[in-house]
Specification:
Elements lengths: L2 H18 L3 H12 L2 E6 L5 E4 L2 E2 L17 H22 L8 H19 L3 H8 L3 H9 L2 H6 L1 H11 L3
Antiparallel strand pairs: 1-2, 2-3
């Protein structure tokens, strides 16, 4: 390969990587819509103490043991959310090892789903996973809806499905 060909190849790779780069700000806005944002401790639909953008309080959190209604600063919500996104991107990569090679829209949907249900539950979506890996977006969109998760989250599943279907 000539130097000119190599340079062209690497420019194409850089362009592809930029096109596939997940937009974390866009993901944040989507999760704010899907999870909501609360600047106080509240109980989630299962009765677990939560705050911010769907952050389940753990023993490691400084908020652990504080009562429902305790105010949380915007800075703390954003800091915890940034860490949560890192965790869920990492979790999504356990289910989709080539996550970064997927279109950014697919990456965002997958991380959103992982944020919502966790990697162990997402890993059970075998037909969805196979369709995504094959870039068969129509089948992937159908498989998303063929689940108890879709019934539980309603409009969120429809919005995410429509984004995957649009990749077809």
């Amino acid at each position: 390969m000539s130097d000119k060909d190599a340079e062209k190849f690497w420019k194409q790779m850089d362009k592809l990587q930029k096109e596939n780069a997940m937009n974390i700000d866009k993901l944040r806005e989507q999760l704010k819509i899907d999870e909501g944002v609360k600047y106080e401790i509240y109980l989630d639909h299962l009765g677990y103490p939560t705050f911010g953008i769907g952050h389940l309080i753990t023993e490691a959190d400084e908020e652990h043991g504080k009562p429902v209604g305790t105010p949380i600063t915007e800075e703390r919500v954003n800091s915890v959310f940034d860490k949560d996104v890192e965790i869920y991107v990492s979790e999504a990569k356990k289910v989709f090892p080539k996550l970064a090679e997927l279109p950014s829209e697919a990456q965002e949907v997958i991380v959103n789903m992982t944020f919502n249900m966790g990697a162990p539950r997402l890993s059970k979506f075998k037909k969805f996973i196979a369709a995504v890996e094959a870039h068969n977006w129509d089948t992937a969109s159908v498989e998303m809806m063929d689940s108890r998760w879709a019934k539980q989250v309603g409009n969120r599943a429809v919005r995410l499905r429509d984004r995957i279907k649009a990749l077809a």
